[in-house]
Amino acid sequence: MNITHLECGLCGLRHEARRLLNLCRECGKPLLVRYDLDRAAQTLTRESLAARRADLWRYREVLPVENDENIVSLGEGWTPLLHAANLSERVGLKELYIKDESQNPTQSFKARGMAAAVSMAKELGATKLAVPSAGNAAGALAAYAARAGLECFIFMPRDTPRANVVECELTGAHVTLMDGLITDCGAEVGRRKEAEGWFDVSTLKEPYRVEGKKTLGYELAEQLNWELPDVIIYPTGGGTGLIGMWKAFDEMEQMGWIGTKRPRMVTVQAAGCAPIVRAFEQGKRFADEFPNAATTASGLRVPKAVGDFLILDALRNSGGTAIAVTDQELIDATGEIGSLEGVFCAPEGAACLPALRKLIDAGQVSTSDRVVLFNTGSGVKYMESFSSV
Fold first, then answer.
1. pTM of the entire structure?
2. Got the DSSP string for 338-362?
3. From CA 201, how far away is CA 29, in angstroms rounded?
4. pLDDT tens digits, one per residue of 62-83
5. φ, ψ for residue 156 (rounded to 5)?
6. Helix orientation angle between 327-341 and 352-361, rounded to the nearest 10 degrees
7. In this structure, how many other beta carbons lie within 10 angstroms of the beta carbon of residue 48?
8. CATH number of the structural domain spanning residue 221
9. Which of 377, 200, 191 is nearest to 300 (CA)?
10. What is the pLDDT of residues 155-212, one digit of tens each?
11. Domain encompassing residue 252
12. How far apart, in whole angstroms, are the C-alpha atoms of residue 17 and residue 33?
């Protein structure tokens, strides 16, 4: 559509679009898609959205697929933004919302990124896709690869929730369970991808998953009538969603849809795996690998994120912060959110509630702030996490 080039998120080196690329050829950091936003804005207007399809492809002009025939879709995106009135009263806020990503295909926000990544892989001629995953990304890739008619090779830690494993197997993926963490699975993909002819669609190791995820930002603005919230609290493993939203806000400003105001972006991680929190507290731009990572929230068990500097830049530039919560806190929050709002959150999404309480106690969120919590997936995929409940 309106892509002009790919650009390294760190060194700014320009790369040619319309090619299968992973990381920057100079510094090995993530590539970001750049658009001719003046051209996009000729047809993509706030007013035009009312007549468009109710999925993420409503923002077609700022998504990377050139030929509509290559769009691989299961109806992802345009998930509800729920006013959490009961929870608002409990914590003492006037306006609290939950963006409920569990209502995506494959029951998590990963459907957004994989819809864009698989569509582009198909368009650019890839035939075999591979990914390391803690669970939900694997399920999404398996589903979208099946729909696209592409082979899919998935590597997951052996203790990945069983629901994710079965989901991948029954949607036709080649599944390998490994001892260790997602980083070990990623290393295995890296060792084998060239010989096996796989295109690696790991988090931020290709440019297009973030494009699907950025639609979270477009939707949030549209659903709030183009007034961004004061605070966004986001559970962060690899961080693609947070990075994508930050990118979306800049694109919308350039198209004249919103002003310069930005939400305070807050990363939430598990205390047992909090590399971004530690780097933020230490004033670092790059996060060290977190040793002995362990948490029941499998999507947060990412000891080293390739896009760490992009996450930390967004937190600092927005006046936000990074907070760690315990596994007990996030499991308890799952029940509290469920009983008050009827949303059965994934543990990662539930982690946002104790983080919010910490922010309120620290005076970093006031009663008048408009706050959005992100539930990134469905609790039904995490039965092992609730075995003692």
1. 0.96
2. HHHH---B-HHHHTHHHHHHHHHHT
3. 14
4. 999 999 999 999 999 999 999 9
5. -130, 150
6. 100
7. 11
8. 3.40.50.1100
9. 377
10. 999 999 899 999 999 999 999 999 999 999 999 999 999 999 999 999 999 999 999 9
11. 81-108+209-386
12. 8
